[in-house]
Amino acid sequence: MNNKNWAKLCRDCDFIDNRNVLVGDIDVIFSRHKPKGYRLIDFEMFTNCLNEIADRIVG
């Protein structure tokens, strides 16, 4: 999955609530779990990104 698809998924699933998760946070979360020099994340990295979003939403 690339950053564009990740951002679209987050918008479509209403993860961005402008309180706990901001638009800029989406890119930061993706970059934090993506290896340096790569453009794509695999399934394990994807689940790590989702877990970080869930932690922010739930509190």
From TrEMBL:
Domain of life: Eukaryota
Pfam families referenced in this protein's UniProt entry, alphabetically: p25-alpha
InterPro entries: EF-hand-dom_pair, TPP/p25
Protein's GO biological process: microtubule bundle formation; microtubule polymerization; positive regulation of protein polymerization
Cellular component aspect of the GO annotation: microtubule
One GO MF term attached to the UniProt entry: tubulin binding
Family classification: Belongs to the TPPP family.
Protein name per the record: Uncharacterized protein
Biological source species: Ciona savignyi (Pacific transparent sea squirt)
